[in-house]
Write a structure and sequence with these properties.
With 512 residues, the protein is mainly α. Helix content is 72%, strand content 1%. A two-stranded antiparallel ribbon has the order 1-2. Helix 3 packs parallel to helix 5 and helix 11 runs parallel beside helix 13. The longest helix has 52 residues. It is globular, with a radius of gyration of 27 Å. The N and C termini lie close together (12 Å).
């Protein structure tokens, strides 16, 4: 029993551990890129690059929503043949390719009005951010398939390869004197190469075999052994069998639903309801639901940089520096979410509990966030001066506050991913309301780094608390759904877990 538990824990940690290590490496590469850009570019141009990346992050939610839909489509037990599986993935790739062409044309036509609206001095950089977000959809399709097939090590390698290519190209183009526009060009080309690397990885990973879905409670036993629940010891009730005997069934035949001497075990999963849609309509519906959740989530993640750059041009670079440093738990969360989403969807589809998966994911994002906040409270200015230079250390006093806010945002990211994997649509309305409230609070801060950080901390903590309540309500609903068929099974002649045999005393309890 202990060996099985250790194996389960090790398997549960292997996936997020690989992705978390990849997230740390990607963060290291991002840190190197920011260090180079902060030294090569002046504060105004560096702030412009960070704003460009924030625009890309907001627009990339379309690809992230598509990724969630691909995971749910691929993990659905729909009995597709291998040919059908390959066909729908090829069709989706083709649609995304057409979308890249259309988005690129629209970006070139509309980049100047958009830059004027944002008071942004680099219109071509806006177009590059849009094109990069369109190419990101191709990468998300491949990563969604890798997630659904449980290829976490291969997915982690793709994270590092794509980040290395993208950051290397950005540094090379900026170093060649192309400035902000060169950073956008490196962004687009790096994502495109990462998508091709992921596509080659998908071709090497077959779709895993599907386990049988749980069924409703079985009818009373008529002689065939029932392996759902057995227990050890005599049943102390009038007319009940003693140890080793069998009770007569309704037709007079021996009923083996209760027998001995066998240990209490359970071979079937809990009956937890899960999403059942598949096909094109289900893919579109899941994409729209995920998009409705990820758009406000992306705004929560990036709107502070855009608002500060809009309200305070001179302080945008200093705030961008602490924002980049404090995004570490969020970036790690984005990596771990690639484990949490498919595991939550797969375990619910199989009828298993999903709370341990969420707990592991939360541990991977909360720990580095708290460590960063503690470090920022004692050595913020030396840290920022060493990494970004003394010219970008003006907002050092806000580092620990913003780190706590980003930790709460990482918790929000994990809860959102978990609820989307469980097909819970109410998260869309909650995130939308919280994003509007957060935008208003950040706007009222007037661009001041400390006031902006405090407003972000309050709003992100409130959002995380509300989503935590939704997760708690989901778990209670799952518990009720799991106990209802167990009670029906008890009436049919078997003993639900955690209950006494009919008319008897409590028996030794094993693993359920």
């Amino acid at each position: 029993m202990a060996t099985r538990s250790r194996a389960m824990i090790a398997g549960m940690l292997a996936g997020p551990a690989a992705l978390a290590v990849a997230g740390v490496l990607v963060n290291g590469l991002n840190l190197f890129m920011n260090l180079v850009l902060a030294r090569v570019l002046d504060p105004a141009r560096y702030g412009a690059v960070v704003v460009q990346v924030s625009i890309f992050m907001i627009l990339s939610v379309v690809g992230n929503a598509l990724l969630i839909a691909v995971v749910q489509r691929e993990t659905a037990d729909d009995g597709d043949s291998r040919r059908a599986q390959r066909a729908w993935i090829r069709r989706l790739r083709g649609v995304c390719g057409i979308g890249v062409v259309a988005a690129s044309a629209a970006a070139v036509l509309l980049c100047r009005p958009a830059a004027a609206l944002l008071s942004y001095a680099h219109p071509l950089a806006v177009a590059e951010a849009v094109i990069g977000a369109a190419v990101w959809t191709l990468l998300c399709v491949e990563r969604g398939v890798l997630q659904a097939r449980g290829a976490y090590p291969r997915l982690a390698v793709n994270f590092v390869v794509e980040a290395a290519l993208r950051i290397g190209l950005i540094v090379a183009f900026v170093g060649a004197g192309l400035g902000v526009n060169g950073a956008g060009l490196g962004l687009v080309l790096g994502i495109a190469l990462g998508a091709e690397h992921a596509r080659l990885g998908v071709a090497k990973v077959p779709r895993p075999a599907r386990a049988a879905k749980p069924h409703a409670a079985a009818p009373p036993s008529t002689g065939a052994p029932d392996s759902r629940v057995t227990f050890t010891g005599p049943v102390r009730s009038g007319g009940a069998p003693a140890l080793g005997e069998q009770a007569p069934g309704p037709d007079g035949a021996p009923d083996t639903a209760v027998s001995g001497p066998r240990p209490l075990t359970a071979t079937g999963p809990l009956l937890i309801p899960g999403p059942t849609r598949s096909g094109r309509s289900g893919l579109l519906a899941d994409t729209w639901v995920a998009l409705g959740a990820l758009v406000p989530l992306a705004l929560l993640q990036n709107m502070d940089v855009v608002i500060v750059g809009w309200l305070d041009h001179d302080g945008a670079g200093a705030y961008a520096a602490i924002s980049t440093a404090c995004k570490i738990p969020v970036f790690i969360g984005l990596a771990v979410a690639n484990f949490l989403l498919p595991e939550a969807a797969r375990r619910r589809a199989a009828g298993h509990g999903t709370a341990p998966v969420l707990a592991v994911a939360l541990a991977f994002v909360v720990t580095p966030g708290l460590l960063l906040a503690a470090l920022g409270s004692v050595a913020a200015r030396p840290l920022l001066s060493m990494v970004f230079g003394p010219d970008l250390a003006g907002a050092a006093s806000s580092l620990s506050v913003l780190a706590l806010g980003m930790t709460c945002l990482a918790v929000t990211l994990m809860c959102t991913t978990y609820l989307l994997g469980a097909a819970q649509r109410q998260v869309v309305a909650v995130l939308t309301v919280c994003a509007v409230v957060t935008a208003a609070a950040l706007g009222l801060a007037g661009g001041d780094p400390m006031r902006t950080s405090l407003a972000g901390l309050a709003c992100h903590a409130m959002t995380a608390l509300v989503l935590g309540a939704l997760v708690h309500r989901l778990h209670r609903a799952d518990a009720r759904a799991a106990t209802a068929p167990a009670a029906a099974t008890g009436e049919a002649g078997t003993v639900p877990p955690g209950q006494h045999p009919p008319g008897g005393e409590a028996q030794p309890v094993g693993v359920w």
